[in-house]
Amino acid sequence: MGDDPASRVYVNNKKKACEELGIYSEEYALSEDTSEEELLKLIHTLNEKRDINGILVQLPVPKHINEETVINAISPKKDVDAFHPVNVGKIMVGNFDFVPCTPAGVMELIKESGIDVRGKECVVVGRSNIVGKPQAMLLLHQNGTVTICHSKTKNLKEKTKQADILVAAVGIPNFITGDMIKEGAVVIDVGINRMADKKLVGDVEFESAEKVASAITPVPGGVGPMTIAMLMKNTVKAAILQHELN
Ligand code: NAD
Questions:
Q1: Ligand 1 atom nearest to CA at 6
Q2: 14 is catalytic
Q3: CA angle 172, 175, 181 (to 5 degrees)
């Protein structure tokens, strides 16, 4: 909804990924002043549409729209972002169909790099519903010892210095510096921050961090593309699950 430039980029990338994979997609670019009622009506229509297996509402929505109401309106079976409370609860329990795309992408990067999470000190900086909280749960399910840090955390550096695996999801450019990282740690940078010169930078100061980290993700080109890949994976899974139900 509306014309948020970052949202436009994300939606275009998602459409492109669908095209590349042969997944049929529809875009509803609603104007900024569309009412909540109209948006909910569209979601209900898509919930019932048999040729649509996954629905996502690109966030943020304009201020007059209640984000929670919108998320709750999406059928949990088609909720490929895994933001619906039913899917959030399933993630907590550890028996889930869909995993939120960004944390899932982080886990995939860790797995593909041959890093074993079991027993490791995992520190997640950020506690949002979209990234930080589900990230912590996924690391816990892999038997990591997880600490969640946030804006009210005291002595942050003391905590991050303990991390064998450090995930930064703060939204502040270059927030985590090399001196906050333990020698040999795995550093995953979720942040995407657009600077005044249009350059994208992460939440980790790459230059100082790469000197101490044993592995580190770049921005752009690290977690971002993985998020889209995981969205595609969730969509295929949704299609399979719905096909089995029918
Ligand atoms: P958010 O603003 O919802 O949450 C930020 C979190 O950082 C909060 O929980 C807050 O407690 C914490 N925080 C803020 N200041 C802090 C401080 N001084 N010390 C410690 N913690 C602090 O953001 P979000 O939606 O979780 O996104 C975080 C970042 O990840 C943003 O840069 C966003 O653009 C990016 N992001 C990337 C992807 C991707 O695909 N790679 C997906 C989602 C978000």
A1: 34
A2: yes
A3: 145
